[in-house]
Specification:
This protein is an alpha+beta fold. It has one domain. Helices cover about 45% and strands about 25% of the residues. It is built from four helices and ten strands, in the order H-E-E-E-H-E-E-E-E-H-H-E-E-E. The strands form two sheets. Strands 1, 2, 3, 8, 9 and 10 form a six-stranded mixed sheet that branches. Strands 4, 5, 6 and 7 form a four-stranded antiparallel sheet that branches. A hairpin with a 6-residue loop joins strand 2 (about 90-95) and strand 3.
Length: about 260
């Protein structure tokens, strides 16, 4: 009788162990599935936000580069209202003629003015590029904030910071991105400083000599001067760079 009881206890113990092992096996699968789901969902959202960040950054780069080229070719004005046509392209007057005088009235472009114009232009032109990306998804929820652009002009580079908050949410999983900084290697700030120097001569009626001008800056800046009568067209660039800033000075014979 005692042996039968021991066998019964042994069998019951074995059953408990087997049940425990089975439960442990299933719980392990559940935990593994939950952990894997966490990893897969978060990894997917992260990969999607990386794709968005790349698209927005590329849009910002493309639009900014085009904006800077146009800004330089049009004398620091995206919508110039007073220009001279030079080989079929508009050259903005940055100094207006004074009757019966070699002097002119200054209307140059400062760095702060350039930054404001670039910010407005880039902001208004980048949205169409960003919207080419398909943000819709049946898997996650998408929220987007307002777009803004900040531009800082330095001597040899232009720093542009785009802010565009994008968040993807799935249950408790979240991935987001908002800041998109780029640096465009164009010497806009240095060229704008030289434009001010040239205009300081023009407003008092003094001539600019290209060779002497270049030597004064140890060949860092190159200048060419054209005379489409009665105006003067200046084109500036730094040595070794194909980025140009060009503008015109109005001749008083045009009055």
């Amino acid at each position: 009788m005692q042996k039968r009881g021991q066998v019964t206890i042994f069998i019951l113990g074995g059953i408990v162990v087997v049940v425990a092992l089975v439960l442990l096996f299933f719980l392990s699968d559940i935990f593994d599935f939950t952990a894997q789901r966490f990893v897969d969902t978060q990894a997917y959202l992260d990969s999607e936000i990386v794709s968005v960040s790349h698209h927005v950054s590329q849009c910002l780069t493309d639009v900014s580069q085009k904006a800077l080229v146009l800004f330089g070719k049009q004398g620091g004005d995206f919508t110039p209202d007073y220009v001279v046509s030079y080989y079929g392209e508009p050259r903005t007057f940055l100094c207006l003629a004074v009757s019966d005088s070699d002097a002119c009235i200054y209307r140059g472009v400062t760095r702060s003015v350039a930054e404001k114009q670039l910010e407005e232009y880039i902001t208004s032109h980048i949205l169409s590029c960003i919207q080419e990306y398909s943000f819709d998804s049946d898997f996650y929820t998408v929220s987007r904030g307002e777009l803004s652009v900040a531009v800082t002009v330095y001597d040899t580079t232009v720093h542009i910071l785009g802010t565009y908050p994008v968040t993807f949410t799935k249950d408790t999983f979240v991935a987001s991105s908002s800041l998109y900084p780029i640096v465009v290697p164009v010497p806009l700030g240095g060229l704008l400083d030289q434009v001010q120097t040239i205009l300081s001569y023009e407003i008092v009626g003094e001539d600019i000599h290209p060779v002497a001008f270049s030597r004064a800056y140890f060949g860092m800046y190159e200048i060419s001067i054209a005379k489409p009568y009665p105006h003067t067209v200046y084109t500036l660039n730094t040595f070794g760079s194909d980025y140009i800033f060009t503008f015109a000075v109005e001749g008083y014979d045009a009055l």
